[in-house]
Write a structure and sequence with these properties.
This protein is of the alpha+beta class. The protein is built from 4 helices and 12 strands; from the N terminus they run ββαββαββββββααββ.
Length: 220
């Protein structure tokens, strides 16, 4: 049920734990495809979209319930006042414990509509922390903290570094045939927006929302 996805709700905002496989907003070509925004508007017609997650990514999404909250939250995103943290399972194991990727990104930069590393793109920064790894399976469990928020930013940065996200069928740079086959078998992309921290648009109090991660490196 849709109500099961609601983590937090008040007169200003609704926070949802979006499942993988569901679009945040309507498809640009086929408006009939089911999406989170349309489903929520059946019960909350005043709802306004603030940001989005990729269809394949699960986790925390904020919606505004009035124009004032929408304006306030958009401004917080523009000023990079909102902090988001993700968990990801990736192919391969980095040698570093911490790493900050600072590579310019060009959205929709190739024929496959991928976000690519390009000097003519916009500055993008993502911080990675190696949390766990499995040498036998050759997987890593990473905490991801994006400091900018471009389409496919995390996926593009990780792929460029040689640590494509498990289950990501679009960013498959330098993956072996076996790794690519595994991507099709796991059933989803292993990227989850685990938490978000923002200032409440009405009270200005700091709000921190956490969710459980729906996958584990031990279960792959």
């Amino acid at each position: 049920m849709l109500t099961d996805l609601i983590i937090y709700i008040d007169n200003s905002v609704i926070v949802i734990n979006k499942p993988s496989g569901l679009r945040t907003i309507s498809d640009g070509y086929d408006k009939t495809i089911e999406n989170l925004q349309s489903l929520l508007k059946m019960e909350f017609p005043e709802l306004m979209t603030v940001h989005r997650l990729d269809k394949e990514t699960s986790g925390v999404v904020i919606f505004a319930r009035n124009k004032e909250s929408h304006r306030n939250l958009n401004l917080q995103f523009e000023r990079r006042l909102i902090q988001k943290k993700y968990w990801a399972i990736t192919h391969n194991i980095p040698e570093w414990d911490h790493y900050t990727a600072r590579f310019p990104l060009l959205v929709n930069g190739d024929r496959q509509h991928r976000t690519i590393i390009n000097q003519s793109g916009k500055f993008a920064e993502t911080h990675f922390i190696r949390h766990k790894f499995d040498r036998e399976k050759f997987f890593s469990f990473l905490k991801v903290i994006p400091h900018t928020g471009y389409t496919h930013q995390i996926r593009s940065h990780l792929s460029f570094l040689g640590f494509s996200i498990l289950g990501d069928q679009l960013y498959t740079k330098d993956l072996s045939k076996a790794q690519q086959e595994l991507n099709f078998s796991v059933g989803r992309m292993m990227l989850h927006a685990a938490s978000i921290e923002f200032l409440h648009p009405e009270t200005n109090q700091k709000i921190l929302i956490n969710t459980d991660t729906p996958f584990s490196i031990n279960n792959i």
